Amino acid sequence: MLMNADLLRIVDAISRDKNIEKEQVLADLEMAMVSAARKAYGPTDEIAVRIDPLTGEIAALRQGAPIDMKELGRIAAQTAKQVMIQKFREAERGSIFDEFSQRVGQIVTGTVARFEGGALVVNLGRAEGFLPRGEQIPGEAQHPGERIRAMILDVRENPHQVKIVLTRTHPDYIRRLFELEVPEVGERIIEIKALAREAGYRTKVAVSSIDSKVDAVGACVGVRGSRIRNIVDELGGEKIDIVRWNESSQILISNALKPAEVQEIALCFELGRATVIVAEDQLSLAIGKRGQNVRLAARLTGWDIDILTPAEYNKGLDEMEKALKSIAGVEDVFLDKLLAMGIISLADLEEVGIEPLINDLGLTEEKAKEIVEVAAREAKRLAEEAAAAKAAAEAAAAAAAAEASASAEGTEALAASEGSASAAEAVAEPAEGESAGSEAGEVLKQGADEAAGAVEQTSPPVNHPPERAA
């Protein structure tokens, strides 16, 4: 029988520091003591240990007889220590897993600890979080010791540790930041209806208010942009567009494409496509840099968005009208019905097929097939003509470029030849002051040549010695 006055205090400290239930700590201690006793007496002995949770009294029995745990020796004590450490670690991993599993989707704040193969290890206090490279905002640089905020994306229980996966690129991270920075969003007065994000570049958020007195967009932006600025700073300068939500798809699409001004929107529910007509000077603004604006608007609204200029829109209508007017029984009323369905081109009519024409417009199957076949044939012909025209234009442009290059080379060659001719003329035609000197030089040269000839006749050959007499 043994009384340990400090045992309960130690158990309380372990339970508090490791966030483990007190009963679990006592059970682990009892199991460690059983292992120590079996190490001392033998693995087959029947050992029972119980710790009183109120007094801390330890009762140990071997084959039903009481034993003193102090007499087990150093080896048994070492065994008990190893078993306790292992059990406490397992219990702590279970506690960490339970705690962070309930916090999935919440924002946590930690300290950058180190880098591991591109992943960022973040110290969260009781555990470490992992921020993979794919979940980091592009272009963002972190350094050890810096404070960082991220959202818990997933919690996995591995054999030796609990892996807490963090993210800063998930769209819900923006949602949680709005809940922190905008009280109306946290109190559900303002609801984030839809969200589309390209992390590090741009985000579109559609919001609405259940209180008519609260302006959803103004509340999210804040006084002089104070609220949205805090979120932008947290994201490293990522642009955020606040879009006013509307149940009408046409109004929502128009709001989502801002700052571009939209002239008209045609919705085709069969294809899930919205054709948006914008002025020529608004086209690049509606599409955005590398198509980013229209791409985010499509994800925000759930519609496949096509951006057309009025000229392109009217061209598609004219081609469709010209092709269908050749079919007997097709009148302007039928064309108006197609426009009301959002079908504005032969390609759309081919893609829709015959079922909407039969079900919505009441056409017979034969007439619907005829219309779709004509549309498909004409669409193919127009596509081939467009491809041929494009190829011809590219060939003409290439020929013009080659001609311009050849002309430039000819001009350079002509300039070079003219320069050479001028230089030759300058050498061939001496100046007037030099003519007399040139004539005197010529006379002296002739005299020198004659003297050399005379010497050559009287002198023996230089390279051949005279022959000896026989």
Topology:
Layout: H1 7-18, H2 22-41, E1 47-51, E2 58-62, E3 65-66, H3 74-101, E4 107-116, E5 119-123, E6 128-131, E7 147-157, E8 162-167, H4 171-181, H5 183-186, E9 190-198, E10 202-209, H6 216-221, H7 226-234, E11 239-244, H8 249-256, E12 264-268, E13 273-277, H9 283-287, H10 292-301, E14 304-308, H11 310-324, H12 332-340, H13 346-352, H14 355-359, H15 365-428, H16 435-458
Parallel strand pairs: 6-8, 10-11, 13-14
Antiparallel strand pairs: 1-2, 2-3, 4-5, 4-7, 5-6, 7-8, 9-10, 12-13
Helix pairs in contact: 2-3, 4-7, 8-10, 13-15
Explained architecture:
The strands form four sheets. A five-stranded mixed barrel has the order 4-5-6-8-7. Strands 1-2-3 form a three-stranded antiparallel β-sheet, with helices on one face. Among the domains are: 7-91, NusA, N-terminal domain (N Utilization Substance Protein A, Chain:P, domain 4, 2-Layer Sandwich); 103-167, OB fold (Dihydrolipoamide Acetyltransferase, E2P) (Beta Barrel); 311-395. Helices cover 50% and strands 18% of the residues. It is an alpha+beta fold and 470 residues long. A hairpin with a 4-residue loop joins strand 7 (147-157) and strand 8 (162-167). The model is unreliable at 426-445 and 447-470 (pLDDT under 50).
